[in-house]
Design goal:
Elements: E1 2-8, H1 15-24, E2 30-34, E3 37-38, E4 51-56, E5 59-66, E6 69-75, H2 80-99
Antiparallel strand pairs: 1-6, 2-3, 2-4, 4-5, 5-6
Helix pairs in contact: 1-2
């Protein structure tokens, strides 16, 4: 199982806004998969999604849409760097929600 942190929201912020926030914080990341399909690195982020794999400088973080928000998930055996990556993605989502 993974380590999950949930952000309550009725609609998640656009992925482009989350990626921009991460880049502005010096933590450039790219979308690797959307709903089980690989994504080209330069492809624009989709507007609708259920499950996104985000490739960060420290490893892959999953974003999972749920009825009451977005969960940010890392593997259950995540080390400190992966937990820090999870925290950075959570912060970027919260910041992107405030902008919207």
């Amino acid at each position: 199982m993974g380590l999950e942190e949930r952000i309550p929201c009725t609609e998640p912020p656009p992925l482009e806004r989350v990626l921009s926030q991460l880049a502005a914080d010096g933590y450039a990341s790219v979308i690797a998969m959307v709903d089980g399909a690989l994504v080209m690195p330069k492809a624009p982020p989709p507007e609708r999604w259920r499950d996104v794999r985000l490739r960060t400088p420290d490893g892959t973080v999953s974003l999972v849409r749920q009825d009451a928000g977005v969960s940010v998930v890392v593997f259950g055996n995540a080390d400190d760097r992966m937990r820090a990556a999870q925290a950075r993605v959570l912060t970027a989502i919260r910041s992107a929600l405030l902008v919207g």
